Amino acid sequence: MPNESAPVGGEKYRRLIAAAQSQTRIKVAVAHPCDDVSLRGATEAHKLGLIEPILVAPRQKICNAANQADLDVSGFELVESAHSHDSAAKAVGLVTAGRVEALMKGSLHTDELMAAVVAREGGIRTERRISHCFIMDVPGHQEPLIITDAAVNIAPDLDAKVDIIQNAVDLAHAMGAADVRVAILSAMETVTAKVPSTIEAAALCKMADRGQITGALLDGPLALDNAISPEAAAIKKIVSPVAGRANVLVVPDLEAGNMLAKSLSFLANADAAGIVLGARVPVILTSRADSLLSRLASCAVAVMVAAARRKSAAHSAGRTEHGERLA
Q1: Which residues contact residue 20 at a Cβ distance below 8 angstroms, ignoring those fewer than 6 apart?
Q2: What pTM was computed for the model?
Q3: CATH of the domain at 138
Q4: What is the C-alpha separation between 211 and 103, in angstroms, rounded?
Q5: What burial letters (b/e) apply to 102-123, b meaning 16+ CB within 10 Å?
């Protein structure tokens, strides 16, 4: 059960935090948490048993922020840096050294942190395309909605969208989704050469049929209404296990995704947790405007992703050992 200090509100996020609390606490490099908001997010996530933060920042700035926020950070390890760019580089260095299982953005710019993540030398890229997922807690909607990609890939091509979808599918499984239903969004549900995103949606569905995307049911193109509303799907006579029941929404480009996520936040009072996937570790990416609950939910998502990766690595190691014994 959640710790008594867990914030009130956001039923889906509270369930997510409770699920993460049943997993092993993870070490997280927090890059440049030099303001009240980012430092409080890290300390509250620690109180809830989600993370063991390693603070990467100039010592004096950390002390000033902690004093102003009346927070005790004396029990946390501090890796001293010279400035925000150095904080990002040293936080990523903790990943390459094998000391942490996740990164967390502090008060530095997103571009600074991501530049260190994707750097050719010292970065932590993998063969998988890096992408961002919003996990939206929308009032009145039964399940959390994953929206991708609304923060990293501006105009992804077809190959990039394969990785973007696979990252989101893997995330949904890590969060405990029994069935992952992916809607590839466009302005309409029919395929037409006049709207290129409809052609890409159809191609992505066929790629899933051929095993190029795994672990989910895909359908598209779908307009937003018939992706999430069973009534709208029925009116349009769309027969599909995804239509009206999607829990992953893949947008055509960053602009569409950003507007969708912010519309839900500001018009439907949804909370938005954020995480970047495709690197060697998950990156907890939050906005200065995010609520404390959203920050804690983002940490909980990283815990679940890290737990899923440990389980997958152990399973792979077991298969290898079994193969060696058979040999």
Answers
A1: 50, 299, 300, 301, 303, 304
A2: 0.90
A3: 3.40.718.10
A4: 31
A5: bbbbbbbebebbbebbeeeeeb
DSSP state of 135: E
DSSP three-state, residue 220: strand
314's enclosing H/E stretch is helix 292-326
Residue 288: is it exposed, middle or buried by C-beta count within 10 angstroms (0-12/13-18/19+)?
exposed
Give the alpha-carbon dihedral of 16, 22, 24, 25, to 10 degrees: 60
How many Å apart are CA 198 and CA 300, to the nearest integer?
34
Note down the domain range covering 259.
Answer: 127-278
Tally of structural domains, the chain: 1
Sequence-separated (6 or more) residues with CB below 8 Å from residue 279: 117, 118, 124, 125, 126, 130
Taking the C-alpha atoms of residue 44 and residue 143, their distance in angstroms, rounded to an integer, is 25
pLDDT digit string, tens, across residues 214-243:
999 999 999 999 999 999 999 999 999 999
Dihedral angle, C-alpha 48, 54, 55, 56, nearest 10 °: -150
**Termini Cα distance of the chain:** 46
In a domain, 61, yes or no: no
pLDDT in tens, 42-64: 999 999 999 999 999 999 999 99
SS3 215: coil
